[in-house]
Write a structure and sequence with these properties.
The chain is mostly helical. It contains three helices and no strands.
Protein backbone atom coordinates (compact mmCIF):
# COMPACT_ATOMS: atom_id res chain seq x y z
CA UNK A 1 0.00 0.00 0.00
CA UNK A 2 2.87 2.35 0.81
CA UNK A 3 4.33 1.81 -2.66
CA UNK A 4 1.05 2.74 -4.30
CA UNK A 5 0.89 6.03 -2.40
CA UNK A 6 4.53 6.76 -3.16
CA UNK A 7 4.20 6.08 -6.87
CA UNK A 8 0.97 8.03 -7.17
CA UNK A 9 2.57 11.07 -5.50
CA UNK A 10 5.58 10.72 -7.77
CA UNK A 11 3.28 10.53 -10.79
CA UNK A 12 1.43 13.69 -9.72
CA UNK A 13 4.75 15.50 -9.22
CA UNK A 14 5.94 14.48 -12.68
CA UNK A 15 2.65 15.59 -14.26
CA UNK A 16 2.87 18.95 -12.48
CA UNK A 17 6.43 19.38 -13.70
CA UNK A 18 5.37 18.55 -17.25
CA UNK A 19 2.40 20.95 -17.22
CA UNK A 20 4.43 23.81 -15.77
CA UNK A 21 7.30 23.26 -18.23
CA UNK A 22 4.95 23.21 -21.22
CA UNK A 23 3.15 26.35 -20.00
CA UNK A 24 6.43 28.22 -19.62
CA UNK A 25 7.69 26.90 -22.96
CA UNK A 26 4.62 28.29 -24.75
CA UNK A 27 4.86 31.62 -22.95
CA UNK A 28 8.54 32.05 -23.80
CA UNK A 29 8.06 30.95 -27.40
CA UNK A 30 5.33 33.55 -27.96
CA UNK A 31 7.36 36.41 -26.45
CA UNK A 32 8.52 38.62 -29.33
CA UNK A 33 10.83 40.73 -27.14
CA UNK A 34 13.36 37.94 -26.63
CA UNK A 35 16.20 37.02 -28.94
CA UNK A 36 16.68 33.49 -30.20
CA UNK A 37 19.37 32.77 -27.60
CA UNK A 38 17.31 34.18 -24.75
CA UNK A 39 14.36 32.05 -25.78
CA UNK A 40 16.52 28.94 -25.84
CA UNK A 41 18.00 29.82 -22.47
CA UNK A 42 14.58 30.18 -20.85
CA UNK A 43 13.34 27.00 -22.52
CA UNK A 44 16.24 25.00 -21.12
CA UNK A 45 15.68 26.49 -17.69
CA UNK A 46 12.02 25.53 -17.85
CA UNK A 47 12.98 21.90 -18.36
CA UNK A 48 15.05 21.84 -15.16
CA UNK A 49 13.00 23.74 -12.60
CA UNK A 50 9.86 25.11 -14.26
CA UNK A 51 8.16 26.52 -11.17
CA UNK A 52 11.25 28.38 -9.98
CA UNK A 53 12.20 29.84 -13.33
CA UNK A 54 8.58 30.70 -14.13
CA UNK A 55 8.66 33.33 -11.37
CA UNK A 56 12.09 34.58 -12.47
CA UNK A 57 10.83 34.91 -16.04
CA UNK A 58 7.72 36.80 -14.95
CA UNK A 59 9.83 39.22 -12.88
CA UNK A 60 12.20 39.84 -15.76
CA UNK A 61 9.29 40.37 -18.14
CA UNK A 62 7.77 42.98 -15.79
CA UNK A 63 11.13 44.81 -15.60
CA UNK A 64 11.53 44.71 -19.36
CA UNK A 65 8.02 46.07 -20.01
CA UNK A 66 8.27 48.85 -17.41
Amino acid sequence: MYELVFYSMLFVAILGHLVFASKMYKEVNSDQGLTFREKNDWKLKSLLFPALFWFYYRQEKKKRNS
